[in-house]
């Protein structure tokens, strides 16, 4: 009997399962790209502080965005946020959930905080 035709694979042929506990995240400010490997349970504050320290920026002078949504320092890659219902189309006694659902290879964008912009 041939092992080639029996449909089984040897341990050498099987791929190791991906480590789903860690993520590789790219942080970019359009001039620089920094890659971080973090756990899914790590607060993004740690990543934000590390990026700013490496780039010589103040954490209070920049904003971090994921898919166009501002990321909070207390968020984690698997964070679920509860938002109180607000706005013209939502009753104030309801709430909704959002989840970052970051995946391996995702990017965070860093933008300079803009203050002002009003008429003078």
From TrEMBL:
Region Disordered, annotated ranges: 1-25
PROSITE patterns the UniProt entry points to: UBIQUITIN_2 (PS50053)
Domain Ubiquitin-like: 21-86
SMART domains associated with the record: UBQ
Top-rank taxon, per record: Eukaryota
Pfam families per UniProt: Rad60-SLD
InterPro entries: Rad60/SUMO-like_dom, Ubiquitin-like_dom, Ubiquitin-like_domsf
Protein name: Ubiquitin-like protein SMT3
């Amino acid at each position: 009997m041939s092992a080639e035709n029996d449909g089984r694979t040897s341990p050498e042929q099987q791929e190791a399962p991906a480590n789903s506990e860690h993520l590789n995240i790219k942080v970019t400010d359009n001039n620089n790209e920094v890659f971080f490997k973090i756990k899914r349970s790590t607060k993004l504050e740690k990543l934000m502080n590390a990026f700013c320290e490496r780039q010589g920026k103040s954490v209070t002078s920049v904003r971090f965005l994921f898919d166009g949504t501002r990321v909070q320092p207390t968020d984690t890659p698997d964070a679920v946020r509860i938002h109180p219902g607000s706005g013209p189309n939502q009753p104030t006694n309801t709430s909704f959930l959002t989840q970052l659902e970051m995946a391996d290879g995702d990017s965070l964008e860093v933008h300079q905080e803009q203050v002002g912009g009003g008429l003078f």
